[in-house]
Amino acid sequence: MFETNLIGLGLAVGSSAFIGSSFIIKKKGLQRAGASGSRASSGGYGYLQEPLWWIGMFTMVIGEFANFVAYMYAPAVLVTPLGALSIIVSAILAHFLLREKLRKLGILGCVLCIVGSTIIVLHAPGEHNISSVDQIWDLATQPAFLLYIASAVAVVLVLVLYCEPRYGQTNIMVYIGVCSIIGSVTVMSIKAVGIAIKLTLEGYSQVAHFQSWIFAMVSASCIITQLIYLNKLGLYTGFRHI
Q1: What whole-number distance in Å separates Cα of residue 137 and Cα of residue 205?
Q2: Model-level pTM?
Q3: For each of the chain's 242 residues, which pLDDT tens digit applies?
Q4: Residue 64: how many CB atoms within 10 A of its CB?
Q5: What distance in Å separates the CA atoms of residue 176 and residue 203, rounded to the nearest whole number?
Q6: What is the per-residue burial (b if ≥16 Cβ within 10 Å, else e) of 160-192?
């Protein structure tokens, strides 16, 4: 158990480094695309023709893949907090590459991310042994979890359909809210897919289980949604007033 957790820990840290770097690379690409066409925050997709944005996307894919594999080896409660390290990487690179000065509150936030992640990792509980994706499905269909999913979807719809058209350009919390809420569902679905793949590689094929494909579709939908709103967040016009 310790060895597998250590592998997951290493993958999660490496993932944070790649993902944190990708944010800066993609923002440079978004800035270039925004200078010559419609901005992503205004609904434009000109950044798809910017090579630098694709380099950042490739870097993110590597980081997300490492993060995905990390979920196969370590508990989600250990892997997920380490994602906060990508904030540290982004903040440092933004300071030097984007000339975005890191102020005292920003430094304090970075310190809190490190302290919080360390505390959670050191006190992470052990993971239950799961022998089939059916067990995960049973947990995912519990009334309390279904209520959470319904609430999350409802809040995201309100943010996307009502808040974004009215406040998206002036309130950063709209985009952060969408990414964060969807991210919570992404973590849970990715963990399920990771366990299904791990069991399959160990000789207990989960391919025939329809639950595996449902979790995979949920993961793909959540990831695509997050990418769209992360791009909008990357060129949030209110940053210049902060």
Answers
A1: 16
A2: 0.71
A3: 667 778 888 999 999 999 889 988 988 887 777 676 555 445 556 677 788 889 988 998 999 899 888 888 888 888 888 888 888 898 888 888 888 888 888 889 889 888 988 888 787 766 667 778 888 899 899 999 999 999 999 999 999 999 988 888 788 889 989 988 998 899 889 889 988 998 898 888 898 899 999 999 999 999 899 888 877 775 554 443 33
A4: 18
A5: 40
A6: beebbeeebbeebebbebbbebbbebbbbbbbb
- Tell me the domain boundaries of the chain: 1-127, 130-242
Interacting residues of 85 by C-beta distance below 8 A, sequence separation 6+: 13, 16, 17, 20, 113, 114, 117
Query: Token pair for residue 63?
Result: 């980081």
| Cβ(40)–Cβ(235) below 8 Å | yes
- One-letter amino acid at 2 equals F
Alpha helices, H only, 133-172 = 133-140, 143-158, 164-167
Q: Give the whole-angstrom CA distance, residue 113 versus residue 91.
A: 12
Distance CA 12, CA 10 (A): 5
Residues in the chain: 242
- In angstroms, rounded to a whole number, what is the distance separating the alpha carbons of residues 70 and 72? 5
